[in-house]
Amino acid sequence: MTVRFDAAAYNFRKKCPYVRKDLLRWFPGHMNKGLKQMQRKLSSVDCVIEVHDARIPFTGRNPVFTETMIGAKPHILVLNKRDLTISTLLPKIVDQLKAEENVQNVLFTNSKDQHCRGLKTLKPLMVDLIKNSNRYNRSEELDYNVMIIGVPNVGKSSLINMLRSKNMRIRHALPVGAVAGVTRSLMTKMRINDDPKIFMFDTPGILEPSVTDIEMGLKLALCASLQDHLVGEETIADYLLYWLNSHAKFKYVDYMGLEEPCDDIQKVLVSGAVKYNRIRRVRDFDGRTREVPDLLESARTMIKAFRTGELGRMFLDIDVLKLRRKTEIQEEMEELG
């Protein structure tokens, strides 16, 4: 049985941990090259599918896509990893995206579940949008070309693999990984459907060249859209701790071997290291060796628990959602653990 704690009894931090902005910048050469490739290929594309993380639907979407990639092309926003966010909030997310950003076609998917309703809806939706659009130089073509875009590690390749497997009974062909940057260039188009013929271009994840908002960068890092070692695992774990305490999500207490909520990331990581035997040996100046808690491995354990849902379903953009009272959302999050 999970012990309930009263958040009002604790004096948690009120501000997001400070991080130098240069730690949140990651725009290597392959991103710049990939963006140029995508822009050149756009004339032969009939529809653009933008994939993003359902835990941060309003945060971190690259404005370059809106300005240069979407525009005149039919556009579908796929919010992936719906199994890790709060399902009762999905209709309100859609309403706000339509009202504030004029995003008319929004689907929620779990690209690891072949029975996902969003995956079943995606193909007929893209076909309908393409048929009812002006295809310009491709109006005589019978096949459809679709480009998948998004920030790193939101499940673009996994989505293509699942559609290909589901519609054509063909095994997965694109490499996927739990870290950002697996796809590094625009790949040859993959057929994902026979009738009608639909081809998809997988593309590298593209971030903004500069991060203007620290918390946005930390959310992207927590959701693995930045490579962990660039930001620092302990820094990412500290932001996670700050966010969990700010929103009275205390499942981490038991998970990290604590007796009660704590706002000190060092204490949390030491406790987790002891619980999971994350120990390393160090050599002192006199040549003797001793065992100390491995805080890096403990931080990785905590971050992984968030990313796999072991700390409960999360909606990191709760403070951006405007269409419901925050107290109602908070109650739902507490009920979900």
TrEMBL record:
It is found in: Mitochondrion inner membrane. One of its GO terms (cellular component) is mitochondrial inner membrane. Gene3D superfamilies: 1.10.1580.10, P-loop containing nucleotide triphosphate hydrolases (3.40.50.300). Keywords: GTP-binding, Membrane, Mitochondrion, Mitochondrion inner membrane, Nucleotide-binding, Transit peptide. It is a peripheral membrane protein. GTP binds at N80, K81, R82, D83, N153, V154, G155, K156, S157, S158, G205. GO terms for molecular function: GTP binding; GTPase activity. Plays a role in the regulation of the mitochondrial ribosome assembly and of translational activity. Displays mitochondrial GTPase activity. PANTHER family: MITOCHONDRIAL RIBOSOME-ASSOCIATED GTPASE 1 (PTHR45782). Belongs to the TRAFAC class YlqF/YawG GTPase family. MTG1 subfamily. This is Mitochondrial GTPase 1. It comes from Papilio xuthus.
